[in-house]
Amino acid sequence: MTFRPFWLDQALRSEHAAPCPPLAGDSRADVCIVGGGYTGLWTAIMLKEQDPALDVVLVEADLCGAGASGRNGGCALSWSAKFFTLERLFGLTEAIRLVKASEDSIRAIGAFCQRYAVDADYRLDGTLYTATNQAQVGGTDAVIAALERHGINSFVKRPLADVQRLAGSRRHLEGWFSPAAATVQPGKLVRGLRRVALQLGYACTKARRCGDWSTAARRKWSPPTGGSSPTAWCWR
User: Fold this and answer.
1) Which of 26, 38, 44, 46 is deepest in the core (most CB within 10 A)?
2) What is the pLDDT of residue 202?
3) Average pLDDT for consecutive 10-residue bins of the chain (236 residues)?
4) In DSSP terms, which residues pair with 77 in a beta bridge?
5) Count of domains in the chain?
6) CATH code at 11?
7) Cα separation of 128 and 185, whole Å?
8) Helix (H) or strand (E) holding 10
9) 3-state DSSP call for residue 18?
10) Is 8 a domain residue?
């Protein structure tokens, strides 16, 4: 019996979706996506939204959401607290853009769920960054000051009584609250993405795991028009 994490198991129990057929023979499409997690499914959806006539095929070795997308903590957080790291890696302009984009993406998840009636238990409740010992007090001051300096700060320092009430413990010594954070049921979200993608007309097929090089019969995929487009490999 295949083990399914709690979140995915709960989502599967509440749906009545037919499995996608296994890959058989050659498959031709404009775009081939390998992997039916958040990235693959959202890519398929966005492609079909931008061009409904596009022929999109998604290849998944197991069930859509069987990997990390269906077994994570369900916390949708921004990259604001990582601003200094982003600046060091990508430069100031890109760091600012990434912080803004990460906060926008959190709200976009909720908008997507509302638009397509995806019941993913989405809650935009915000997040609280706290200190629980004296060594941590003031630890976020520098990054929040930098965010404020560049006009991208969403954090507000809360009174200690509010911090302890919200956190449910008197061990918290200070706290900063940001409304740009949400929670979701990850299994329901990824299965909802699958449903929406199928409704928009992408083709999903099941293939053998890509790591099985020794026995897999590799089939070369190419776009209908041929040419020099990148090649994707599918296994069945």
Assistant:
1) 44
2) 76
3) 86 86 83 93 94 91 92 95 98 98 97 96 97 96 98 97 96 97 97 94 63 36 34 28
4) 181
5) 2
6) 3.50.50.60
7) 20
8) helix 6-13
9) coil
10) yes
Beta strands in 16-173, from DSSP E residues, in sequence order: 31-34, 56-60, 75-77, 127-131, 156-157
Q: Is residue 217 part of a domain?
A: no
Residue 25 burial (10 A CB sphere; 0-12, 13-18, 19+): exposed
End residue of a domain, out of 184, 202, 226: 184
Please give the backbone phi and psi of residue 162, each rounded to the nearest 5 degrees, phi first.
-65, -40
Q: Which pLDDT belongs to residue 214?
A: 32
**204 and 154, same domain (yes or no):** no
Segments forming the whole domain that contains residue 194: 1-74+185-211
- Tell me the pLDDT tens digit for each residue of 141-192: 999 999 999 999 999 999 999 999 999 999 999 999 999 999 999 999 999 9
**Together in a domain, 82 and 144:** yes
CB-based contact 80:140 (threshold 8 Å): no
d(CA 183, CA 159): 24
CA dihedral 223, 225, 226, 232 (to 10 degrees): -10
pLDDT of residue 218: 38
Residue 219 in contact with residue 236, Cβ under 8 Å? Answer: yes
CB-based contact 147:155 (threshold 8 Å):
yes
Residue 1's pLDDT is: 59
